[in-house]
Design goal:
Elements lengths: L8 H12 L2 H5 L2 E8 L5 E3 L1 H12 L7 E11 L4 E12 L8 E14 L2 E11 L17
Parallel strand pairs: 1-6
Antiparallel strand pairs: 1-2, 3-4, 4-5, 5-6
C-alpha cells in the first residue's frame, strides 16, 4: 500500500496509481469523505464516488494513459494540513476516441494527516485552456 509520509508524497503516489490503473491504490490516496473535482468540473464527494468516477475511464478511454506530475508548491496550513499545487500532464493513448494527445492540468490538493498518514481531503483539477478560444493548451506552449 502507498504511504504518504509528507504532503508532497501525494504527487508520486497519484502518478503511480494512475499509471498502474489500480483503483485500490488510487482509493488509498483519499480520506473516506474526500471531495474530487475532475478537469471537466464534475464534483463528487466520498471515496466510493471518486472510484465510481475513475474506474470506468481507466477501463476504457484512459486505459493506456499516463501521468507525469511536477510539484509547484506545498503550503502548510497547520501541523496536520497542507495545500499542494502541482502540474499534471495526461498523455492519452490510442484508446481515447480523439486518439493520442496530451493534456496539461493544474491540480490543487488539500491533504490532512491522521495518525502519521497523509491523505487527500479535497482535490480539484483544472485543464489549461486559451481564454480567448477555449482550446486546450500545454503549459510550455502558452501564448496568451
Amino acid at each position: 500500500m502507498i504511504q504518504l509520509r509528507h504532503p508532497e508524497d501525494a504527487l508520486q503516489a497519484f502518478q503511480t496509481s494512475w499509471n498502474s490503473h489500480d483503483m485500490e491504490s488510487f482509493r488509498a490516496l483519499f480520506h473516506a469523505d474526500a471531495t474530487f473535482v475532475n478537469r471537466f468540473g464534475h464534483y463528487v464527494r466520498g471515496i466510493e464516488a471518486i472510484i465510481e468516477l475513475h474506474a470506468p475511464i481507466h477501463a476504457s478511454i484512459y486505459s493506456d494513459s499516463r501521468l507525469e506530475n511536477e510539484l509547484i508548491d506545498v503550503v502548510a496550513i497547520g501541523h496536520d494540513a497542507a495545500i499542494v499545487h502541482f502540474w499534471s500532464r495526461l498523455m492519452v493513448g490510442a484508446a481515447h476516441p480523439a486518439g493520442p494527445h496530451d493534456v496539461d492540468t493544474l491540480i490543487l490538493a488539500v491533504l490532512t494527516r491522521q495518525v502519521d498518514e497523509w491523505r487527500i481531503k479535497a482535490l480539484e483539477n483544472v485543464t489549461l485552456v486559451n481564454p480567448r478560444t477555449g482550446e486546450a493548451v500545454l503549459r510550455d506552449r502558452q501564448e496568451f
